[in-house]
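Chapter review. Work through the record for Probable 2-(5''-triphosphoribosyl)-3'-dephosphocoenzyme-A synthase before attempting the end-of-chapter questions.
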Amino acid sequence: MTGLPATDPRPARVADVPLLAVAALYAELNLTPKPGLVDRANSGAHRDMDHALFVASINAIAPWLRVFYQQGAQDAGQPEREMLRRLRPAGLACEQAMFSATGGVNTHKGGIFSLGLLCAAAGRLSAKGEPLSATTLCMTVSSMTRGMVARELAHGRRAATAGERLYRECGLTGARGEAESGFAIVRRHVLPFWRPAQGERGLQQALLRLMAVNPDTNLASRGGLAGLRYVQAYASGLLARGWDEDALREMDRALIARNLSPGGSADLLAVSWLLAALPS
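Structure tokens for Probable 2-(5''-triphosphoribosyl)-3'-dephosphocoenzyme-A synthase:
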């Protein structure tokens, strides 16, 4: 699987969404330099992760992405509002496979959530004979997760997780909010500007676009709102002034020094790569 192209999605006519999801995880991981994040050069702001650990994690996750697709197809006749509950056992099993492969390190929990939903949505659409495109996939995920933020963040009795705490304290909805919006940030700020021919530079440009606007709960968890605003402003500045690889390496050093890792934007970059492989 590591031999798949790092930047150019497979042709839309293939539309094997689980395979594309695995390729998207590798494309995100191998992109270098990638400020604050694990890449081929270093471990970013992480002391408990490296490139090899991420490869082991992806290998553990990969079979489950097919399971999400199959579950979506099997339950195509069920109401969309039932899908989250029906997918949860597979999601928990996939997370456990990740933790087993990484010795308990959370390398891809956000990626499992987002890409798992996209794979399930693809299975549902295919089983119903409906068109498979970036738009239909995102809208199906949005319908499947409708009300999730209210149920799991707004109306919860206590802030048991970091995501719940950040919602209570800062109003950040994290991966749940992105899914419920149908990945609106990706559709508005990345896909219209996607240029696969630009190779890694195009992916880095997409990552900067995400970092500039994404209310990343990974950043807020590590550095508070000040850390989040710092990274958003830094990325916006590079986009406005222009940048090269030296500028990205300098940003990498700055984020490492502040222990900031834009992991939420990394997850959305993988989502972007997958969606770019489908018709818009």
